[in-house]
Write a structure and sequence with these properties.
- With 456 residues, this protein is mostly helical.
- 68% of the residues lie in helices and 2% in strands.
- It has 11 helices and 2 strands; from the N terminus they run αααββαααααααα.
- The protein has a two-stranded antiparallel sheet with strand order 1-2.
- The radius of gyration is 29 Å and the shape is elongated.
Length: 456
């Protein structure tokens, strides 16, 4: 405890012999864990609570719409090899968990700012550490689905693919989250256990001081014997404080590295996918001027059914609409990736701030408020925007309601009409089906087997 002697001396110097010394000691003990906050801190948190609720409603709307369209599935196996996640649905589910934890973080921050009357929840530190993990998992489903389409176009997989390739293709996507998140979770769980131990030790000292505070009289003064009683517990508290700080800082260092690496990989992957979508849109634009006599080379030969003849004709007359759809997908994916990357980088910055900041006494109230407000403002607003972009993936631009909304909100990136004739379709039942015998590489996140529905 030699390192703490100057600090102890400075506290004792503050004690007035004619006043109750425990009135001085107790606020200092409270300050070990409970930061001082501004008067408007709680008000801002309740405003942010409304932002998170609005974001959750948008996510739920998108999930309900996909369920009504029959596209609410999580993972599908392509050619008995690749596991393709439904990026929009999986991201929406992880976003709901992320928002729910954000709401819990806000409620906890309000409680903690109220002082020791509202004790820390036992899960506080581990919740603080794992909160960004669900944002990362949402991003990973987008990355996973994009890598599946890139791998299929580059290598192709068939029913005769070797067993080792099948095992690798199905196990590797599931192992990445374990490798990325398990070490963080372990570090934060250990930090949380030590943090709870430190809280108990601090509470033990507080209860002793409260007892002595009631028994104090001017004649007694400061009983050094009482201080000797709490010195061993105080030393244990200091050791626990240093230990949980070390575990949490290691966890935040690891989280920072994972988040930054993920942003780089995600950005490069989305760049290649968006470039492919734009190239396909350009190819469709180039086919638009073809004359009727060129339609003999259409993807479906005239023949067995009226539907095939209609699709054969529409392949050329509707290339402009298909190009618009691909351009919308490329734009939607780009903006979604940009917003998600900003959220990941923002969380990486906050994690790095935690990691670089040593444990301080008293708890830094400025850092506590800044991190909570910045993370909630940025994550709440950006998550709402991402949820809105993903919701647009489920909307048919040709529906009457969508057309009216475009007039009211012309600045929003609504999808184009995707009906065969470019006309009105039902937003709930419309679904695009690409038959497997169309000789095109997968344009979006497409289930490439016959008789299966596509999704993106």
């Amino acid at each position: 405890m030699s390192w703490a002697q100057p600090f102890i001396d400075s506290i004792l110097d503050r004690v007035d012999p004619n006043t109750n010394p425990y009135d001085t000691f107790l606020p200092l003990l409270y300050a070990v864990f409970y930061p001082a906050t501004s008067s408007h801190f709680d008000l801002q948190l309740w405003i942010l609570l409304g932002v998170f609720v609005a974001s959750a409603l948008v996510v739920i709307a998108g999930l309900v719409l996909r369920m009504m369209q029959g596209r609410f599935w999580l993972v599908h196996r392509i050619q008995n090899t690749l596991l393709m996640p439904n990026a929009s649905v999986c991201y929406g589910l992880f976003a709901l968990i992320y928002i729910a934890l954000g709401l819990l973080q806000i409620v906890n921050a309000v409680r903690i700012s109220g002082g020791p009357e509202n004790p820390y929840p036992r899960y506080y530190l581990v919740l603080q550490g794992i909160w960004p993990m669900f944002l990362w998992l949402g991003m990973y489903t987008e990355l996973w689905a994009t890598l599946c389409t890139l791998a299929y176009r580059r290598y192709g997989f068939h029913e005769t693919t070797s067993r080792w390739k099948i095992i690798l293709a199905q196990v590797l996507p599931l192992m990445v989250p374990i490798v990325a998140l398990a070490p963080q979770l372990g570090l934060f769980l250990m930090a949380n256990n030590v943090f709870n131990t430190a809280l108990n030790q601090d509470d033990t000292i507080v209860q002793d001081f409260k007892l002595w505070q009631k028994e104090w009289t001017v004649d007694k003064g400061l009983d050094l014997g009482n201080l000797q009683i709490v010195i061993p517990t105080g030393q244990q508290l200091a050791d626990s404080f240093i230990t949980f700080s070390w575990y949490s800082r290691c966890g935040f260092y690891f989280a920072t590295a994972i988040l930054i690496t993920s942003v780089i990989v995600y950005g490069v992957t989305v760049f290649f996918e968006v470039s492919h979508l734009k190239e396909q849109a350009k190819e469709f634009r180039g086919q638009a001027p073809l004359k009727d006599d060129a339609r003999i080379s259409g993807p479906l030969t005239a023949g067995s059914s009226d539907l095939e003849q209609q699709l054969d004709c529409e392949w050329f007359s509707g290339v402009g609409r298909q190009a618009q759809l691909l351009e919308f997908v490329a734009s939607n994916r780009t903006w979604t990736a940009v917003l998600i990357s900003v959220m990941l980088l923002e969380n990486a910055g906050l994690s790095l701030w935690y990691a670089l900041t040593p444990a301080t006494f008293p708890t830094d109230g400025v850092q506590f408020q800044a991190i909570i407000l910045v993370s909630c403002y940025c994550n709440g607003v950006l998550q709402a925007l991402v949820s809105l972009l993903i919701l647009f993936r489920s909307i048919d631009g040709g529906h009457h309601t969508t057309r009216q909304l475009k007039k009211v909100f012309p600045f929003l990136p609504f999808p184009p009409p995707v009906g065969l004739q470019g006309g009105t379709t039902t937003v709930f039942s419309h679904h695009v089906d690409f038959n497997a015998n169309i000789p095109q590489t997968p344009m979006i996140q497409v289930d490439l087997r016959p008789d299966e529905k596509t999704d993106w």
